[in-house]
Amino acid sequence: MYRMICRNYEELSRVGAHVMAEQVKRKPDSVLGLATGGTPVAMYAALSDMYRRGDLDFSRVTTFNLDEYYPIRKDNRQSYDFFMWDNLFSHVNISRENIHIPNGETKNPEAACAAYDEAVRAAGGLDLLLLGIGVNGHIGFNEPAPALTLATHVTELDASTIEANARFFAQKDEVPRHALTMGIGAIMGARRLLLLISGDNKAAVVKKLFSGAVSTETPASLLLLHPDLTIVLDEAAARLL
Ligand code: PGA
Fold this sequence. Notes:
Blueprint: E1 2-6, H1 9-26, E2 31-34, H2 41-52, E3 62-65, E4 67-70, H3 80-87, E5 99-100, H4 109-122, E6 128-131, E7 153-156, H5 159-165, E8 178-181, H6 184-189, E9 192-197, H7 203-209, E10 229-234
Parallel strand pairs: 1-10, 2-3, 2-6, 3-5, 6-9, 9-10
Antiparallel strand pairs: 4-8, 7-8
Bound molecules: 2-phosphoglycolic acid.
């Protein structure tokens, strides 16, 4: 594991963008796993800037997002589909047919989840997967539990996740109770992992993450078993280390 502590969110975002950009420059047809949430917003803005300046080409890149609320319409401003177009896809030259996001509108979520894993396999697996961490230690929507699921699946959101994500919705009861998420299999199967952790509210889970134990009750701790993991934190998130 390689760990880097940045001064603040801006620096962390620059570092994250640099890691993603170097991956795409080295392998223009990279398969990227992407995350949503507050953390990657400035990183996506930095990648969009690199494209605008002519420094980065997304034309051969394929992407797979980690998760999506379920059910949710793509045109809902809180859907992760909307988020990705708003923060990245509309600003760069990625091909629409190379973009994959779990389908929050599907009538058959089990089939959609199975097809998602198959699409990741058919693309040759993920070259680099960007991840955030929930205040409860979740990755994607793999919530703390006695066992984690390998495959992409429908999951029920943890009360703490609903609480944490309520800030994006007009009211807490608008937060969907379920989600579709990549399982721990596709996540650990990625060739490289990049975990970004920013902010004071993540300090407690960061302490747990580096406690020296691996547990499905802190799903992100499983990432520590991956042979190519980079964790980039800011000082606020690292303050209890
Ligand atoms: P955040 O979400 O970036 O909004 O903190 C991270 C996560 O829940 O995985």
